[in-house]
Amino acid sequence: MSTTDTTIDTGTGEIVDPRLAAWADAPPSVLFWRAFRKHKLAVVGLVVLSFIYLVALLAGFIAPRQSEWFNVDYTYAPPQALHFFDTDEAENTVFRPHVYGYALEVDPNTYEITHTIDPEQKIPLGLFVKGDGYKLLGFIPADIHLFGPLDPDQPFYLLGADKTGHDLFSRIIHGTRVSMTVGLIGVALAFALGVTLGGISGYFGGVVDTVIQRIVEFFMSIPTLPLWLGLAAALPTNWDPLQRYFAITVILAIMAWTDLARVVRGRFISLRNEEFIIAARLDGNSRKRVIFRHLLPSFTSHLVASLTLSIPGMILAETALSFLGLGLQPPIVSWGVLLQDAQNIRTVATAPWLLLPAVAVVLAVLSLNFVGDGLRDAADPYKQ
Amino acid sequence: MLAFILKRILWMIPTLIAISIVAFIIIQLPPGDYLTTVIAELTNQGGRVDPEQVLALRERYGLDQPIWVQYFTWISGIVLRGDFGQSFEWDRPVTALVMARLPMTMLISIGTLFVTWVVAFPIGLYSAVRQYSAGDYIATTIGFIGLAVPNFMIALVLMYIGFEYFGQSVGGLHSPQYVDAPWSFAKFLDLLAHLWVPIIVLGAAGTAALIRILRANLLDELHKPYVVAARARGVPERVMLVKYPLRVALNPFVSTIGWILPMLISGDIVVGRVLSLPTTGPLLLNALISQDMYLAGSIILIVSVLTVIGTLISDILLAWLDPRVRLNSV
């Protein structure tokens, strides 16, 4: 007979299998997480995304240089490969991370200076090295960097340099901050607008619904980018970078709330006549309480999923706006601003590494899409 | 059906008015007006400001009038005389500038739409029917990447490959020797040889989205009882598939016209800039940067109106194809 610890069902109605009991007692958040974990790509996306936001949080510490640091001696210096092992005087292989230095080459005809990797020079690297000062988390003064050259004056360009000798690797890391938060703030604004208008539209119905739906359709029928560009071009040129940053997020949110409003409205309409809502209303709950305690919580997970899925659009939009020169402007560093340098095919041909910020964009957008997909699947209990 | 079309056309009118107001607001947003910009430009260049010209312009746009009168002057010029105003950067009527570039924009947009359909249809169909096969995974992965890569990146990478490995420039729509040449068969072939680059670049995201939509819709339909019933009756799988679920799942293809046109027009601005295409996108971008506001506002207006008309056509097609749409919304 069975020798498992499952005891005989006595018919008292208690769940005796401990695994079943764990399922039955699990709060919705645990069930949600279990469903989410089944979507492997979503889990990978979540890991990558957490990593990206961690980088954004600790940008000053992780980047070897500050975003405004540059050295014109190393214009368009190519990327240096990392080497971990070196041979010491006794011909033993030892762990000594380093990169090779640069040699200058001057074209005898055009006097054009190009940098080539010179294996003769070795630039030793170290962990937790002293470098330029920065503010950790925005307020703690610090000058220790995760890694970098032992001598801060030596050239260290992991992903190459741009036309003024900025370190592209450091700048992509600093750009993470702006690029990844533009989406968050924009989505927060779009969320406020979308939930309010979509909720009103779906809950009250009738004329209010028709009017709001027409407004939504109107916004959806305008080609977004021309409108964004029009609004961005109209921003006063004397605004400081921070004002511009917030203005751009507002402009992005103006177009993004429509999708959310539609989702919220659809949910409100389908839930409005469910038994538990009718019960809540008949119990004499105020309208506010019905909306915020009964209606909204029942589709929070759907909202989170659609919010996650609308961030990538904002990141791509910011990138496109800044790429065209109408979004954020230097000295603010975002991935789109960095890509401005790569507009010209001649520049791209001389320094193809200038396209690398786009890899960061693709990575962020892909992980957000995967996470959003996983959330949406986990939020849908009727999916097989 | 006629009532449905009439109702949709009537709904278009408030939308068009709202669009024209938005376009006008965009024109008005930058500080100063059209004339201060013109005068500043002329003075900067050391040119003299022709008082007669200023007077004519002031009268034409009624710049001393209240704002709603100005709007009315602008919009009645467009509706009654087809006069969109003057581009001060080009010193030519906006109408002429836009009309020179609009046909090429339409050609690229319609071509892209067509290619998007032709590519997305078989892949989406295959992906749904053979769910979780190797082909499905490949299609899904490519779809996701297609949505995640900014389209100007695809353009830049294609240009880089063309430049680095084939030693040719893939920008523009004509080879240098054909740019100013009159239309001939050779020029047409040359156009076709250039056209595929912007079409691929512009179509990537739309194709990816459409594959995912068709796959999801078809998967929903494939599990419905009528499919089981058809199978039980012994209808061959292939015939059944084409006859029932596919027809229902095809709706998004028709409604694509509605959302893909705004997307293509938006894409054209960035891609047109990178690939230097003779389309309205780069014209709009330059107009916005130099604050040539009448040109910019007019392009936004024209492009938005075309999109609304595209949406109308797709709605009518959808209603014609699917009685549920027609009956629900009248």
UniProtKB/TrEMBL annotation, chain A:
Signal peptide: none annotated. Belongs to the binding-protein-dependent transport system permease family. Residues 176-372 form the ABC transmembrane type-1 domain. CDD domains: TM_PBP2. Gene3D superfamilies: MetI-like. PROSITE patterns: ABC_TM1. This is Peptide ABC transporter permease. The keyword Amino-acid biosynthesis does not apply. It is found in: Cell membrane. It is a multi-pass membrane protein. Keywords: Membrane, Transmembrane, Transmembrane helix, Transport. The chain crosses the membrane at residues 41-63, 184-206, 218-239, 245-264, 295-315, 351-371.
TrEMBL record, chain B:
Signal peptide: none annotated. It is found in: Cell membrane. Keywords: Cell membrane, Membrane, Transmembrane, Transmembrane helix, Transport. The keyword Transmembrane helix applies. SUPFAM superfamilies: MetI-like. Residues 102-318 form the ABC transmembrane type-1 domain. This is ABC transporter permease. It comes from Devosia nitrariae.
